[in-house]
Amino acid sequence: MPLFQKKTKELSQLPPPEHIAIIMDGNGRWATKKGLPRTAGHAAGSEVFRRIATYCRDIGVSYLTVYAFSTENWKRSAEEVSAIMGLLKKYLFEALEKMERDRIKLKFLGDLSRLSPELLALIDRTNAVSEQYEGFQANICLNYGGRDEIVHAARAFARACLAGEKDPDSLTEADFGNYLYSAGIPDPDLIIRPSGEERISNFLLWQSAYAEYYFTDVLWPDFTPAELDKAIAAFHRRNRRFGGV
Fold this sequence. Notes:
This protein is an alpha/beta fold. It is 43% helix and 14% strand. Strand 3, helix 5 and strand 4 (137-144) form a beta-alpha-beta unit.
């Protein structure tokens, strides 16, 4: 039985965070430790994402956002980038077959213009199917960078001002949020980073203003529902004041 179900009576009465975000880190190191190519780590990591997404849905999480491919990841070898994109295509083909059964909505956040036409077509099909469902939503950050997202939003707002649609002096934080890739999605309550690294790496910079962070040495391919339970239990021990007393 997962740790989250074994908590004290007081904790078990508390709901899980509405929105959990995860930096899926450690795939390459996991593979290297096992004497495998880095691509094997990404394959293992994609299966873990599938299990964690299903578990989040089952325990009542509303949104799961994962960092799948950053704007900086293009600097990796062509072989590794190709492998990651190939895994994404494989996952989307399988997701399209199972979405009606699993009722997991998928949304992609990031600058998708650099992706291949085949991948973009799959994403469009996935989006169309997702629109039919309500409930749990998994957000996949693809060719995503927090700074890039803010610049993208600023440009969009500037264009609206030039067109006479917006007044720059009336801009609020809430209004600006509508120009982000994550428009309409509540900010994450809990951000988890496996692998032992303790930095945010350009992930959800705007949205993470009041998020709680949880770091663990566990590499992403070894991350289990029990590890997620530990993060949720730690989240419930935090005192979230949002700037108040």
